[in-house]
Each structure stands twice: as structure tokens, then as C-alpha cells.
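Pilot study result, target chain (439 residues):
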Amino acid sequence: MTPQEAVKYYGSRLTEFERAEIEKYSEIWYLGLSAHKIHGEEVSSQNGGYDDENGSYNKVLHDHISYRYEILEVIGKGSFGQVIRALDHKTGQHIAIKIIRNKKRFHHQALIEVRILEHLRKKDLETNSQHNVIHMLEYFYFRNHLCISFELMSHQRVYTYIQSRFYRSPEVILGLPYGTPIDMWSLGCILAELYTGYPLFPGEDEIEQLACIMEVLGLPPEHIISHATRRRLFFDQKGSPRCVTNSKGKKRWAGSKNLSMALRCSDMLFVNFVSRCLEWDPKKRMTPDEAMRHEWLTSSSSSHVSSSSSAIASSTVNASANTTTTSVETSRESAHLPQTVSVTVSAPRQRATTMEDPPYTMYRLYKGRKYVQKVSTGTDVTDNGGGLMVKSKLNGSASSHALASSTQTATSRHASTGDIVASLDPNLDDSGTFLPPIL
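Predicted structure:
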């Protein structure tokens, strides 16, 4: 069909932009009349409305590419653009089309790719051989996008060993088909680790990894076991899990604990969110869209604001508590004797706690010969009214000189905790920063 014939018979179903655009083509094979077309405008931003803010083409399913190809689905995305599966209405074949982003730097890089692929294609034709290199069919421009068409390859997966072990989904471990739900599994594992500070499923190898999962989630459904290509590694002929003992002599039993116990968490919304991520069946696993609508996320903002307000209102903070002061007490009998240093740090605002909250423990980190003993609430900490007093020991004459110099300036300036430690000993190669509280 010629462009003139297309406009004559179907012009009323084309957009105004298309009626002008179609004149540039010598042959018309497909018009995409059933698609919900974008009404592009020459003067509007983002390539007449055909691009998004990143310069990627706004594809419309069943619309046309160059009045020849029908867009069927998106099969890949990347930094350079997107790849679609399309039907070539001229040849009747399904092909892949890479649509490069409408940005200069990506366009220049894609031209290099085109030259390489063109060279390989010519060499294959000259030698009448196949070298297992994907063949470019042709390249063309459509609405300011460089497009490269390829033969459509199969969806055979080359890699089966993916994901870090602690966050590896059951379908990958068991050798089942996998897809994007494996990322939701990893999200659940990472959230649990962020909450507790420890991996939720810390398997030493894949066999113990699945045992760790079954310990919390119980046995997988029968249909998952029966379709698993690697089930013999983990289950006997009766479908029972093989006995696993790790290097520390620990055995794990399926269903011996639940997720709340493993998380040590009483927030049922959080536990439910994690459990939805950790479904055995990837089809039942929570999707990203469902996660964004989950009550744990939708209610987090408001509850965080209210709890923070309550904590601030209930705390009594003196004006002097906004600054950090230091007091250094040293015995000047001998510069070579161990010195005792008292560092007073104003108490920070504390969050509201409940009876279920475990006591916090703080550590001060030093390197070399310097050290500070473990500090626990109610044992090595004394309250001066203005803050917590932590006593530590610094050995050596270098410490004594540092103490003497810090005595002169401690009361005349305010400093952060890191500055205080640095002033105590210039030889410290670590800042002495307080580590986060350990539950």
C-alpha cells in the first residue's frame, strides 16, 4: 500500500501527526489502527510527546513502528533503551527491535554497535558460515530514535546459579523456572537482616540454605518439590528433607520456629510484610505494586511522626544537653603509668521504648594497644545529671601528653564525640566513633 492509499482509506483513523509523517515512507504494511495512539505534536516537548523524560520511546502495544512492525511486548530494558518483540507484517516473522534512547551519547554508542554488527553480517555472508553471533537484520530511524532489528532468539536461560546465597530464592535453589519474584524474596531477607542485624537464612551451602528456610517456613508445597529438578539434593525418595548438620554441629528441623520468633519482632504488620515476600510459591509472592500498598508501608509515615512526637514530649532535655562536654581527670604522678580518662557525653534523646525492647549495648572502638571496656546500661556507666560518664584506660606516655593538652581545651570548646577521642591521643588511627546500638 502506498502512503496516498493509506491516507485515502484510513486517514480518519490516523492522527494528524501520522497523516503528515506517513508521506516519508514508500511502502505501508501496517497502521496500528486498533492501538490507543499518542497524538504527537511537533512543537511539544519530549519529542512531540512520543518520549518519556529519560528519552525512551513511549511504546503503545499494537501500534506500528515505521508503518511495518507491530509492537507485541517489551522483552528487555536497559540504560541504552528497550527491546520489543514485534511482528514484521512484510515477512510475517517475529523479530526483536532495539529502540535506542533519544539522547546523543546513546545514539553515538549505538552507531558503533551498528557498524560492528554490519561488519559481522557481511563476513558471515562472504564465508557462508555461522559463528553463533546474533544477526542484525537492518537498522532505521523512527521518530528520532535509532532502531536496530534482530532475529528473535529463544528465552532459554543460560545461567541457573544466581543471587547471593543468603538471599537466594527457593526456585533458584531447587532448579525451578524463575523470574522477577526472586527479587521480592531477596527484599524480604534483606529487611529481616536490617531489623535484626543478622542474616535470616545463614546457610553455609545450598543444602543448609534450604534447611534454614524450611526451619522457619516449614516444608515447601508438594507441587514445588515434585517439579524441582534438583530435589534429590535436598529430599529423599519419600519427599522428606535430608538431615543436615553444619560445621558447628547444628541441626535444623523444618518448622521448628516461626517468622516472628526468627525476627524477634512484635510488629505484626512488619512480620506480615516480610512473610508476604517469603512465600514458597513465586506466584503467590507479593509483587512490588502490592508491597507499595501494604499497610506496613502506608501507615509507617504517620506512626513514625506520632511516636517521635511522643518521645520528644516525654523526654526532659536540659539546655546543657544540647552540647557535649568533656572532663579529664588524670593523675600526674608518672607519665608512664596508665592514665584514667573520664569522658562525659551528654545523653542523646532516647526513643520511646516498650517492655519488649531488649537493652541496648554500646561499644567504643580503638585500635592498637588502646582499648575501652564494654559499656552496658547500669554497669560501667554513671549518670552525672548532664550525661553518661564512660571510664576507659589509655596506656603509654603518648596518651599522657594527649591528656595534658586536652585538659587545657576540654572545657573551652564544644566538640563531637569523634573530636574528643581524636584529642585524647593523636596516634589513634581510628576515630573512636560509637558503633550503632546492638540489640
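One observation from the pilot: The CA atoms of residues 344 and 389 lie 4 Å apart. A full batch analysis is planned for the follow-on phase.
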